[in-house]
Amino acid sequence: MTSSAVDPVQLEQVRQRVFLALFIALAVTLNAVEYLLPSPLPWFRFGLANILTVTALYLYGSRAAWTVALSRILIGSLLLGTLFSPGFLLSLSGGLLATLLMTSSFQLLGSRIGPVGVSVLGALGHAGGQLLIAWLLIVQHPSIWLMLPFFLLFSLISGMINGLAADMLLDFLLKHEAFARHKTTREFPSQTSGSDVT
Amino acid sequence: MALGELLQRLTRFDRYLILCLSLLVGVSFLLPFGRQAGARLIVEADNRTVFSAPLDTPRQFAVEGPLGMTRMEVRNGAVRVLHSPCPQKICIGLGEARRAGDLLACVPNRIVVRIEGDVEGAAYDLLSR
Amino acid sequence: MFNRPLIPILLILLVALLFWLRQPAGESMVSRTALVMGTLVEIKAYGEDRAQLEETIDTAFNEMVRLEQLFSSHLPESEISRLSAATGSFAVSRETAVLLELGIEMARLSDGAFDLGLGRLKDLWDIGGENPQIPGEQSLRRALHGAGPAALQLEGLQVRKQAPDLHIDLGGIAKGYIIDRAAELLLQAGVSSAAVNAGGDIRLLGDRQGQDWRIGIQHPRESDATMATLNLRNRAVVTSGDYERFFVRDGIRYHHLFDPQNGRPARGCQSVTVVAADAASADALATAAFVLGPRAGLDLLEQLPDVEGLLVTADGRRLATAGIESALEWH
Description:
With 198 residues, chain A is an all-alpha fold. In chain A, 70% of the residues lie in helices and 0% in strands. Chain A has a single domain, classed as Arp2/3 complex 21 kDa subunit ARPC3 (Orthogonal Bundle).
């Protein structure tokens, strides 16, 4: 980065947009890869794309997280050809509830909640939102709730793993000067290797 | 990667949150979500529903048809005909109905008993006999 | 656009909702039972409009009752009863003629194992009736008089009986024909996914919400068990077994599936299940194969196109036609 006469605020905005675009691209890719992988049950998805949403949340705040989540759902379903199908509605409702939980917990609790906590909440929100819409619109059959415990357990585990991945990604990114110069709206709350962040 | 190192990445709140949610998930396995209290039996006389009861509560009851009272019993999650005024007593010989879709009928007395609801492990939709 | 997240969210939701409303609101299932033909008939139908489904099912039941009054040999005013009482040529309705023609064809295909003229034999045994009995040789021969593949001649709507005292009994075919008619009515009313089950004689329309219908096959000796499952769509399944109507005397089971050769219950099988395109053929062929016994019965089913089946021999062995393997799961 050469120093030039560019307004630093403007530069930061552009930089943020570029990185968000990258995050979205990555999220869409992860989403697509996940669909290609065999899954024990159609609804059990690992939600790897959420790693990018959490990372965006901790780097750039709530609005960025919304941008990544919504774009991922839209572009992802466009790519997979599921746009506006019942599956899309499920994915959308899961994504909305997940992002709502993640951003609000992040804003309410600030540095007390880490990426892992946020990610777990997101994963559970995703599962809950999907089941709720499935219940309301697709199958009003009580046996759908039979799956709930398994669904929740699976999301809890995947949420933790995704959260840890996001935390590591954040560690890694914040070591880079492109982010090091950038102060998030909030203090990054990771308890490890904070020394590298200035 | 050591577990401790991973745990280091969690804030105190994260750990409590995960603990609470784990308990919640554990509890959700115990709750009877979607597991219906059990199937119900429906008794129809002359194509009208005259009696309905859950299959998991033992009881005896009687339904009136053109020939008289047909007495039935619910026991061990199944319903059977105890006594019938019909000449052949085929309905008694039909044995028990316990799975969703199972049917008992006393044709002469125009009484039909069927089981409704979700019973796990129903291996077929229809029975050819 | 993404600086105001709420607007795109609302927009997406709105669009998704619109698309959703354009899709069918989801299928519902209507299941109704009624007592027709002395047995419990259940019609299950899937569709979007509940009220219309119920109306269609009602129509189907009414049609079944109407046909029963045409074909029953228990109702003295039925066409079949009057044909039995007639001595000369007798004019029948078109529906009866169609059914009789199919029955005559089945009798020919099975070399007389299926027989429409067993009315007096069945009355004699009275299996499932109030006074079942084991008739003597003499009365059996008298009851069989005039029966056989050539018992009826059909020309247009005119029926001529070979022997004036021949009594028609459509027991082995009418039930199948009636559920076929009910299924056709459902189909005409636009129902594409339904099942008509008359006491275990089944006609399927289409599939069950994208899946095969799973048809359990009654175990001939364990009343609470199935011996196999058939995964089918758009087929008819009829099982004939010696456990359906019988009485036991001196340790011998006397059942309702008679061999027209000697007028006695056929001894080769415990049960025969036939899968065919229509229930009337399946019904008649199940009876015919039962009477023919395992080897000839299975040969008959193998040799007919679009017909499959499985059977349990008198000593409990299970056999099946080659073409049914893919749909069949033994238990």
